[in-house]
Design a protein that fits this description.
Strand order of the largest sheet: 4-1-6-5
Number of strands: 7
Radius of gyration: 14 Å
Shape: globular
CATH class: Alpha Beta
CATH topology: Nucleoside Triphosphate Pyrophosphohydrolase
Distance between the termini: 29 Å
Oligomer: single chain
CATH architecture: Alpha-Beta Complex
CATH superfamily: Nucleoside Triphosphate Pyrophosphohydrolase
Structural class: alpha+beta
Helix content: 10-25%
Number of domains: 1
């Protein structure tokens, strides 16, 4: 991740896909972006010298009660307020119901459906979605198998 500016908040998010290649997104339940969809994640605790990868692991456990393994970085994205690092994540956890603590709802959704609803997704996550689309195009239109979880 690029050096954080004093005004920007460091955030890390994980992209989890199921065995069919659907992407897990959450609809925010509060704050200024209430009602917008996002990849689960949260602020990097820089005061604890937390890395972006450690933040993803912590946030997924706190917010969704899902232990994840952080994989390849999809990209770094920034605007005036946020510096976002996005990673592929996988899990061995097989849960019927995913815990919701900060999201109004969670759902696994097709990439094409997400791309058609960009106006309902956080702006930096839209840029990450476009990069995921490029990765999928290079993989004959699908999420690479190494990034899929068996949930």
């Amino acid at each position: 991740m690029a050096t954080q500016t004093s005004a920007a908040v460091g955030v890390a998010a994980g992209v989890l896909t199921d065995k069919d290649g659907h992407i897990l997104v959450g609809k925010r339940s509060n704050g200024p972006f209430r009602g917008k969809w996002e990849f689960p994640g949260g602020k990097i605790e820089t005061e604890n010298k937390e890395t972006a990868q450690e933040a993803v692991i912590r946030e997924w456990k706190e917010e969704l009660d899902i232990p994840v393994t952080v994989g390849e970085k999809i990209g770094d994205y920034a605007n005036a307020d946020v510096e976002l690092a996005v990673f592929w994540v996988t899990t061995e956890e097989r849960k019927e119901t995913i815990t919701r603590t900060v999201h109004e709802t969670l759902e696994f959704t097709d990439l094409s459906d997400l791309l058609s609803k960009e106006q309902y997704i956080l702006p930096l996550d839209v840029v990450a979605l476009r990069d995921i689309s490029i990765i999928c195009d290079a993989n004959n239109g699908g999420i690479p198998m190494r990034h899929r979880s068996h949930i």
